Amino acid sequence: MRAAENWKDYRLIDTTNSEKLEIWKDIILVRPDPQVIWKTPKKSPLWKEAHAHYRRSSQGGGSWEYRKKFAQEWQINYGELTFNIKPTGFKHTGLFPEQAVNWDWMSEKIKNAGRPINVLNLFAYTGGATLACAAAGASVCHVDASKGMVQWARDNAAASGLTEKPIRWIVDDCEKFVQREIKRGRRYDAVVMDPPSYGRGPGGEVWKLEDSVFDLVNLCSQVLSDKPLFFLLNSYTTGLSPSVMSYIIGETVGTKYSGKISADEIGLPCEESKMVLPCGSTAIWEE
Predict the structure, then answer these.
(1) Is 239 helix (H, G, I), strand (E, B) or coil?
(2) 48 and 28 in contact (C-beta within 8 Å)?
(3) How far apart are CA 230 and CA 284, in angstroms?
(4) What DSSP string runs through 188-224?
(5) Which of 28, 31, 133, 264 is the most exposed place for a label (fewest CB within 10 A)?
(6) SS3 of residue 111 by DSSP
(7) Could you report the per-residue pLDDT of 133-178, keeping only the tens digit for each?
(8) How far apart, in whole angstroms, are the C-alpha atoms of residue 54 and residue 70?
(9) Chain centroid to CA 168: how far?
(10) Predicted local distance difference test score (pLDDT) of residue 239
């Protein structure tokens, strides 16, 4: 497993009984986590000191229970990057800290490429990968279907001092955008994909990533340049193991370009248990 070990403003303190105890700079949160199926004793006294606790509802969804007063939006840093954090109605905070292990990897690839790199970041959320790639010197096209998330990403870029970097901010359906980019003849040296496990089409139809991921990756492989640097696919879907994801990358990107394919879980080190909490998987094709 590849662990995001370089955080200073984020700490995973303890995990038990479907929940995790975290510190986001100075704010202590308790949030649900479906991977935490063990029921070990709570080892940290900070469980009782949480500023907020997200509780699941038996009817679905959930809500925050606020125990202490604190600013509803604050900032944390990862190296030279700054992110705006705030509790949302669906348990998230606007950042997946485990992805820092991928930000570091992409940054090094871009810095060592020895040539200009143009990155396409799809399902780009609040822009962690976008900021990391831009700070490393790449041009980035950031695409997400949510206008609010794209604005959040732009705010993160501004907070990180990256406003003047060559970043295109696109609010669009990722699949349709890629189809148009292919027709336009626009190509990218690197593609980052972080598709959701579930989605809804324009007619309200529900789709699952397992049913769509092969065609989606195959489509996106067609937007790569003649000499691509990397293709990175993230998944939080339990049905998509790293081995399955590596096979998909191999049968799409790997059939068009010679390179190295790898896949593994990514995770966060837990201070109390000394284990690494699994937080999804990443499959990579690289030059």
Answers:
(1) coil
(2) no
(3) 7
(4) BSEEEE---SEEE-TTS-EEEHHHHHHHHHHHHHTTB
(5) 264
(6) helix
(7) 999 999 999 999 999 999 999 999 999 999 999 999 999 999 999 9
(8) 15
(9) 18
(10) 80
